[in-house]
Specification:
The chain is mainly alpha-helical. The chain has 6 helices and 2 strands. 24% of the residues are buried.
Length: 251
């Protein structure tokens, strides 16, 4: 997205206080959130890979009716806590993103992009992804046959409920597989969210640039017309014959 910022800087240097909306600020804010989502995605996938590596270990232990070590169990809990925390960070980023889209609607109520999407459409899609992330945790708890997952209202209760299923070799394997499912499902939603954010950044930024360029041209035309009016107001008036000769003047 750096090429967009280069355009913005050139436009911004021309617009001065005339700019209706600061394009640099908007692009930087949105791109920062896109980078945040990328960092969260990388961490989620790292935790997913760690959980996958434990699956084979748990399967081998289950054959002999043996359990994971206390250290492995604690590491599992820690990773689950990290995944839930990253989900919360994602939710915060979505909230910030929807706030940006709301402000964009206020400034550009007539905006639609090449996909015929408005800023309100982007906000709606982001909120839908937010719900999907919550559903991932709900589905994982259901897969572990946790009764009434909806009754767990905070992260600590959800984590405890999932880890309570890991009391024996079979339960530990199921808990690990559930964490793989949780991280994979979250990563899928993050991928869609990154695409949504990147698309809106590119198309809305281009729209702002074009709008600012149009406003600059209009301002320049107004100044040019004003100068022309001032010049012609100082010219003498008179009567011109058919050959273009000035027959008389009056002021």
């Amino acid at each position: 997205m750096k090429f967009i910022l280069i355009f913005f800087i050139s436009i911004y240097s021309l617009t001065y206080s005339f700019t209706v909306h600061d394009p640099i600020n908007y692009a930087v804010n949105l791109e920062n959130k896109l980078n945040t989502l990328e960092q969260i995605d990388n961490q989620i996938r790292g935790l997913e890979n760690q959980a996958k590596s434990l699956v084979n270990q748990a399967k081998q232990l289950q054959k002999f009716d043996l359990s994971l070590s206390m250290g492995s169990i604690q590491n599992l809990r820690n990773n689950l806590q990290k995944i839930i925390a990253l989900q919360n960070n994602t939710q915060s980023t979505i909230n910030y993103y929807t706030d940006l889209q709301t402000k964009f609607v206020e400034l550009y109520p007539d905006y639609t992009d090449d996909s015929f999407l408005t800023a309100s459409d982007y906000s709606r899609k982001a909120k839908e992804l937010s719900k999907e992330i919550n559903n991932v945790t709900y589905d994982v708890m259901k897969s572990l046959e946790i009764i009434s997952p909806e009754k767990y209202n905070n992260d600590t209760e959800r984590i405890d409920a999932i880890m309570d299923t890991a009391k024996d070799a079979e339960g530990q394997l199921q808990a690990i597989q559930a964490i793989v499912q949780l991280s994979a499902g979250t990563a899928q939603q993050l991928m869609e969210l990154k695409y949504l954010t990147g698309q809106s950044l590119k198309l809305q930024s281009t729209y702002i640039v074009n709008r600012n360029q149009e406003e600059i041209r209009n301002l320049q035309n107004e100044k040019s017309n004003l100068r022309h009016d001032m010049d012609t107001s100082n010219e003498s008036s008179g009567i011109i014959d058919n050959d273009g000769n000035l027959l008389g003047e009056f002021f």
